UniProtKB/TrEMBL annotation:
One of its GO terms (cellular component) is cell outer membrane. This is Variable large protein. It is found in: Cell outer membrane. SUPFAM superfamilies: Variable surface antigen VlsE. It comes from the Bacteria. InterPro entries: Borrelia_lipo. Keywords: Cell outer membrane, Lipoprotein, Membrane, Palmitate, Signal. It is a lipid-anchor. Transmembrane segments: none annotated. The Vlp and Vsp proteins are antigenically distinct proteins, only one vlp or vsp gene is transcriptionally active at any one time. Switching between these genes is a mechanism of host immune response evasion.
Length: 98
């Protein structure tokens, strides 16, 4: 009877061990996925920063100046395009009246 019990316990421990290994593999894969996401996110941040001319040492004021310059440039382009559209509308109205 004792031998039978030891055999049963020995068989069951293999199943528990396999289940634990499966859990460990799953958890390890989650850790690997999160590390890869972090690498991609960090690389993307570095890439965007380098394109914008910003780095880790950039001050908030430098970032603010950069985006104010961008906003000014975009506003200038918008104003220029609105002027062109306005002139085109005026020409069209004149052409329709003639």
């Amino acid at each position: 009877m004792m031998v039978m019990m030891m055999v049963m316990m020995g068989c069951n421990s293999g199943g528990v061990l396999e289940a634990e290994q499966g859990k460990n593999k799953f958890l390890q894969s989650l850790v690997n996925v999160s590390n890869e996401f972090l690498n991609v996110f960090t690389s993307f941040g570095d890439m965007v920063g380098s394109v914008l001319g910003l780095n880790v040492d950039s001050k908030k004021s430098d970032v603010g100046k950069y985006f104010k310059t961008v906003a000014g440039t975009v506003q200038g382009i918008k104003d220029g395009l609105n002027k062109i559209v306005s002139e085109m509308k005026k020409k069209r109205i004149r052409m329709l009246r003639e």
